[in-house]
Every structure is written in C-alpha cells, then in structure tokens.
Design brief:
The complex is a heterodimer of chains A (138) and B (251). With 138 residues, chain A is mostly helical. Chain A is built from 3 helices and no strands. Chain B has one domain. Chain B is an all-alpha fold. The chains are: A mainly alpha (138), B mainly alpha (251). At the A-B interface, helix 1, helix 2 and helix 3 of A face helix 2, helix 3, helix 4 and helix 7 of B.
Amino acid sequence: MRVARDRVRALSAQSSAQSSARSCGALLGGLLIAMAVTVAALVPGTAHAQDADAGVSAGTTGRETEFVAMTGPARESVPGGALLVSAYAAILLLLAAYVGRLALQQASTSKELARLDAALRARSGGEAPAKTKAEKPK
Amino acid sequence: MPDQRGAGSFHAVHPAPLSDSASRVVPILAAATALLLTGALYLIFAVAPVEAQMGIVQKIFYFHVPSAYSMYVGWCVCAVSSGMWLWKRSDKWDAWAVAGAEIGLIFCAIVLVTGPLWARKAWGVYWTWDPRLTSTLLGGLMFFAYLVLRGLGSGGLAERRFASALALLGVPNAALIHYSVQRWRGQHPQVISGRGGGLSVDMKPAFYLSFLAFSALVVLLLWVRARAERTQQAVRRLELDAAERGLLEDA
C-alpha cells in the first residue's frame, strides 16, 4: 500500500514536473498568439497591396454604373489575398486545435492521478502524503 | 489475490518516473520555436518579394513545404518506433509511435489544406488527381486509420500489432509521395528538387527560416506528445495494478 502511494506520489510529482506540459502549453499558446498577431499585422497589408490594382481598375471602368463588353479572351480573376489569408488561418487553427487537445489530455491525466491518489489515501486512513522534492514550491 | 506479489513487485511492474531534465528543455525549445516562427512570418510577409507570375498566393509555399517535411518526420518517427515496438515490445516505443502518427497527421492536414488553396490560383482548381496529391491523401488516410485502430477497443496487443504493421506500410508510401513527381510527371511543381531556376535569392532566407522553425516545432510537439503518452501509460498500469491488488475497491 505504502509503495503504491509512493508511486502515485511520484507520478503526481511527475505530473507537476509536467507543469512543463502546462508551461509548454502556455508557451505554445503564446507562440500561436504571436503568429496570429504577426499574420494579422502583416498579411492584410500585403494582400491589399495586390488587390489594390484590381480595385483601381474596377473603379475606373465604373463597374457599379455600367457593364462593358470584354475584348479578347475571358479571364477569371482569383483573389490571391483571400487564399493566402485562408491558408495561414487554417495553419493557425489546426495547430491551436491540436495544442488545445494536448492540454485537455494533460488535464484528464492529472484528474485521473488525483482520483487515484485520493482513493489510495482514503484506503490508508487519510494520512497526508509527504511532499516530494518536485512538489515543493519554487 | 490482493497481496500475492508483495509490495516490492510494484516497482518491478511500473517503470521509474520519467526524467525531469526534459521539463527544463521543453520550455526553452518552445520559446525558441515561437521566436523562429515569428521571425519566419516577418521574412515571409515583410521581406520576401511577391512572385512574378502567381502573385502573393505563392507565399503559401513558405509554410506548405516545411509542413510536408514535418509530415514526413512524424510518419518516419511513427514507422521506426512501430518497428522497434514490434521488436522490443517496449511501451516507450509505443508512445513515440502514437506521437509520430498524430503529429504527422496534423502536418498532413496542413499540407492538404494549404496545397489546394495555392492550386486554386495556380491551376484554377482546388484539387486534381495528381500523383503527389493522391499519394499524400493516401498517406493521410493510412495514418488516420492507424489512429482510429489505436483508439478502438482497449488498445490490446492485437490492435497494436496491426497498427504497427500499418505504420510500417506508410514508409513506402512516403517514398512514393516524394518521388511521384519525378516518376509520373505530375502537375506538382519541383522548385526545390527540380532542375529549373529554383527559388529566387531574395526568397531563400524566408524559406530556410521557415524550415528551421518547423523543424523546431515538430521536435517540440513530438516530445510533448510522447511524454504525455508515457505518463498516461504509467497511470493506466498503476490503476490496473492497484485494482488487481484490491486497493481501489472502496473508490
């Protein structure tokens, strides 16, 4: 029993040492926020820089007030800016979703450890576990 | 039979707690990754020039190619670890295999989302059954099947063996993805490995920094995921063993 509780305590210590997972989660969260901010700051400017030409030409032809027949072969204009923003947003969302899933998984493991610890403590008469080195506040 | 094995065997059943040194390395690696990714984004959007023919949509390339490389890394880690698990039957290798499959699949999803967005501008369609696109999709489905298999049932030996074999089958497919363009002359560009003009000099810093950032990111994610899996394995075994000894009967 004592060995079992020691083992649970060791795993709890490991789990708190796995505050690395939490601190890493926080860092990864920071990473994703940094990416979001950089993308938000840099992409629209670049995207609009290209789309501006299209806007000017559309304005000069008076698209709102008249329809003019096209001369030469028909060409489809694909908005590169929107595609670029979509691509980087997708990367950000997929990575954020995965980091979030990792954090949930880690929370579930910590919960399971706490449940196991409580069950074993109740079984041994409720004596308080000694603090391990890793559990001591820094 | 609660105490048949004795308290001493508990240590034999469960491995020692994981090394704490990784706890110090991971935050440093995460901070370095954040810096590298931010620097790469700056170079991509503020320094690298717009491509003459495709326009700004070409900037997808800077994260698309490193994502594909990270996908290969994940799948290779999964395949090698699966092979090692089949040989050694060690839970450590099993944890790395699961981590590799998950990370590989995440980067595969990034490749399969960003690629079609680029293709819409470059080819006029989101998707075409090009050899490289098709083999990448096939690889993604294989590793998705691997994870579904691992999630089924109680993760028994049979499921793990079958999943490991599936992961090993992913290696020839990864080679197929890489060489499909040269072999079958698909539409997919070969800017990096082809014999054409390659990448403009001004575009190279952004590309190389993105590559470095994604290398750090894939190592970080693999490490964190494998460690989480190792902890889960230890908790599961501890719980099972405690239940077998009747220690959790009142819980």
